[in-house]
Design goal:
This protein has 411 residues and is of the alpha+beta class. It is built from 8 helices and 11 strands. Strand 3 (168-172) and strand 4 (175-178) form a beta hairpin. The longest helix is centred in the last third of the chain and has 58 residues, at 316-373.
Length: 411
């Protein structure tokens, strides 16, 4: 085989370039710490690396979501804690207001002013925003103020403007948690009055009429809802959209009670303003028959009615009933807040546990990724040194071959 000078030059140059290519690759591996620089280096390992990196990114996002939930739930819990303290203060003055023996009219006015101020504080907290300008208690309508006073309602109705939905945030591959509570769960449907009809009120074997006097007309605020339970069967009416009368309430109850032998009427000859709602068993009663009528308002409307009763805006009988019912309403409002805070605590515990699960999983995935992607420095340094020797040998061989020529001997 004939070897020309050009061929030997080309072979020598190619050998040097090949050694430099290997040396440069090893140098890049040492600089980056990665064994795989391009998918061509190890296609299977490169694909596995992409999968592991995607899984790790997702779990890091879950951790960010957990931070978001913890911040929002922490703010909500602090807000509800403040509202709890205010409600407890209102309850203390409600106990004083129920002590009619020692309470003077001017004392009631002072109490009304204090409760009115506390109501303003409660409304301010109910309309709290987070750092992103979103309302805490508006549900998924986070840019809508949850509570506003209905100026069309003469009896002081505070209308909820949010919705009943919760925003669920992913904190794990198969787990989502609510980052807050809508006002409908925390402040709405607070029982503010309860009427019990016991077997002693019913004559066995004869139709029975029971006067229900504890829900006065003036207390039937817009937004109030009612629940009737007869022998374990429940029916609901409301919320009422306008200023209702007893006649309208009786009509609504009768419309919902078609399956029950207990229609309601207003006492004959007394009119709507009499404050008497008559519950009549249309079939002979038995000693086992029982009934309960519950009235529900939101927390703020209930407190506003309490203030009006203290101010003397209602007739004496209505005022006494509302002041007497105020403790029931406040206790139920506090129970609502406590239930919400218990739910928040449970969710905070859940996200703390999920955070630990995510952290352990990320560590395991990073370990697996390291085994696939990371460079073995001991092996790489040894290979780098060997490649340096190979490059130097190729360069020296090229120099010696380059000097081989018959013309060197022609002198």
């Amino acid at each position: 085989m004939r070897l020309s000078t050009a061929l030997m030059q080309r072979l020598g140059t190619n050998a040097i370039l090949e050694q430099q290519r290997h040396l440069n690759k090893t140098q890049l591996q040492l600089a980056s710490g990665d064994r795989i620089l391009t998918p061509a280096d190890d296609p299977v390992a490169a694909a596995r690396t992409l999968d592991l990196e995607e899984v790790i990114r997702k779990h890091e996002q879950y951790q960010n979501n957990i931070n978001t939930i913890e911040n929002r739930l922490g703010l909500e819990d602090a807000t509800l804690d403040g509202m709890t303290n205010i409600l407890q203060r209102i309850r203390e003055v409600a106990v004083r207001a129920n002590n009619e023996a020692s309470l003077r009219p001017e004392d009631r006015q002072y109490i009304a002013q204090e409760v009115r101020q506390a109501l303003g504080e409660l409304l301010g907290l109910a309309n709290t925003k987070n750092a992103n300008g979103e309302y805490l208690f508006a549900g998924t309508k986070s840019h809508t103020q949850p509570y506003t006073a209905d100026t069309l309602a003469t009896d002081g109705y505070y209308r909820y403007q949010g919705d009943a939905n919760q925003r669920l945030i992913q904190i794990g591959p198969t787990r989502r948690l609510a980052d807050g509570d809508p006002g409908s769960n925390v402040f709405e449907r607070v029982e503010t009055a309860r009427i019990d009809v016991t077997p002693e009120d019913i004559t066995e074997g004869t139709p029975t009429t029971v006067e229900v006097q504890k829900i006065p007309v003036a207390a039937l605020t817009p937004g109030a809802s009612f629940e009737l339970e007869v022998d374990g069967v429940k029916l609901s009416v409301g919320p009422m959209d306008k200023d209702p009368t007893l006649t309208e309430l009786a009509t609504a109850l009768n419309a919902a009670a078609t399956a029950l032998p207990a229609p309601f009427t207003v006492a004959e000859g007394l009119g709507d303003d009499a404050g008497k709602l008559v519950l009549t068993w249309s079939s002979p009663g038995s000693v086992g028959d029982t009934a309960q009528l519950h009235r529900y308002d939101n927390t703020f409307t209930a407190i506003d009615q309490f203030v009006k009763a203290l101010d003397g805006d209602l007739d004496d009988k209505s005022a006494k009933n509302l002041i007497g019912d105020s403790l029931l309403a406040l206790d139920n409002a506090l129970e609502k807040l406590n239930n919400a805070r218990a739910s928040i605590g449970a969710r905070l515990n859940a996200v703390a546990q999920q955070r630990q699960v995510n952290e352990r999983f990320v560590v395991e995935m990073q370990s697996a990724l390291s085994e696939i992607r990371d460079l073995d420095y001991t092996e790489a340094i040894a290979r780098f040194n060997l490649q340096q020797v190979g490059l130097q040998a190729a360069q020296q061989a090229f120099v010696k071959v380059q000097n081989l020529s018959l013309f060197n001997y022609i002198r």
